[in-house]
Amino acid sequence: MEKAARAVRRSSVKLMSLGAGHGDLNVLISEVKDIRSTAKAFMNAQSVASQDLLKWAANEENRALQDVANQMAELNLAWAEVQRDFCENLKEYRHMFEMILEGEKHLAQSRHNFAICEQRETRTRKELKKAFKKASEAELQVLENRLAQAERAKDLAQLEVADKIRENEAVKLIRVKGGLLKVSEAYTEFAKKCSVIFEAQRQITQHLPDVHSQDLDDIKYTGSGATKHYVQLAKEKVRQYRHHSYHCHSIPPHYSEPPPPYSMSDNSKANIISTDTGTHYTFSYSTSVADSNTSPRRRLDNAPTTTTSTSSTHTTSTHNNNPPPTVEPEYQHSIVDYDPDWDSDCEDLTGAMGGAKI
Questions:
Q1: Is domain 2-209+224-240 in CATH 1.20.1270.60, yes or no?
Q2: I want to staple 131 with a disulfide (CB 3.0 to 4.6 A). Which of 56, 135, 223, 225 is the partner?
Q3: How many C-beta neighbours within 10 Å does residue 75 have?
């Protein structure tokens, strides 16, 4: 039955749009309106079911059921408010398409005006052509003036259409982008608040006592204070929730060519320092590609330091043309002691894991 009603509604919208055009946009607006109506109906049905649950539990003699039903009703009030805000966002979403439709109507009106001016110019030109041989000079002058006015009006109408097209396309992009961002934020906020509320409902439900292996007379319900706490905490989280900011005008990423591959010649460089006694060779090694996954602190500790050879051991005479001796790099630790608590690869999950280090 609902499918038939939906098909009839869509067909009626298309029929109403035959004269004015923009049938697809009108159908879209109708569907967004139906989304909002369905969401409101779903919200009302949930509220009625929650009230019925509360009435049923009130007539029971089970104190645990009464308390849980009361807290569920409180959560449902907060959930109804969340859904009401979401329906308002859907209303703004539909209004965005209605404004786009209004702009399309103005553009269609400008095009219609241009078509009328073009027809008037064509008709005046035909009249002037017919009256060229048998009309007087005064009549010809009048027709020529009318033709000039018609041409001028046609040119102005054409310029107006071109301006309206550019303006309408720009405004359409702005409205669609803004509307889609807002409805995306609305859905995200709706989902986050839904998670908060129904997580509180799950925690409240867990306080109902288990009767699988116990005698019913020995069971005592002690979760009244905890359930109230969960409800208040959920309401506070919903009230203080702020959705993440989305950058509407973010700069698109710049893609460039990747750097050239590393070679052995790039991994080591020799720096030559001239002194009075000779030439000292100092070797410094750059970090390899394999170290990119290591934490910054470990790269600092494992990095070789720049060393300078002493003049008594690695000094060559300025008059000797022999190649310099090969000097092995000397490794030493950094002056900063290694602290595993500071390192990013050894996190202190205090609170989540009771201070255990993973």
A1: yes
A2: 135
A3: 23
- Determine if residue 324 is left, alpha or beta; phi over 0 gives left, psi from -120 to 50 gives alpha, anything else beta: beta
d(Cα 294, Cα 351) in Å, to the nearest integer?
A: 26
> Structure tokens of 304?
């070789």
Burial of 114 (0-12, 13-18, 19+ CB in 10 A): buried
Query: Please, how many CA atoms are within 13 Å of residue 133, restricted to the half-sphere of its CB?
Result: 2
Q: Model pTM greater than 0.90?
A: no
Whether the Cβ atoms of residue 47 and residue 98 lie closer than 8 Å to each other: no
Tokens 């995200």 belong to 188
DSSP letter assigned to residue 293: G
Q: Is the pLDDT of residue 250 over 60?
A: no
Residue 180 DSSP SS3: helix
Helices first, then strands: H and E counts in the chain: 8, 2
**AA letter at 2:** E
Residue 155, token pair as written in the block: 């040119």
Residue with the bigger pLDDT between 249 and 40: it is 40
Percent helix, percent strand, percent coil in the chain, to nearest 5? 65, 5, 30
pLDDT at 331 over 90: no
- Tokens 């000779």 label which residue? 278
CATH 1.20.1270.60 location in the chain: 2-209+224-240
Cβ atoms of 62 and 40 closer than 8 Å: no
Higher-confidence residue of 293 and 346: namely: 293
For 26-34, the CB contacts below 8 A with 24+ separation are: 26/101, 28/97, 29/94, 29/97, 29/98, 29/101, 32/90, 32/93, 32/94, 32/97, 33/94, 34/6, 34/9
Beta strands in the chain (DSSP E): 268-274, 279-285
Burial bucket for residue 204 (CB in 10 Å: 0-12, 13-18, 19+): buried
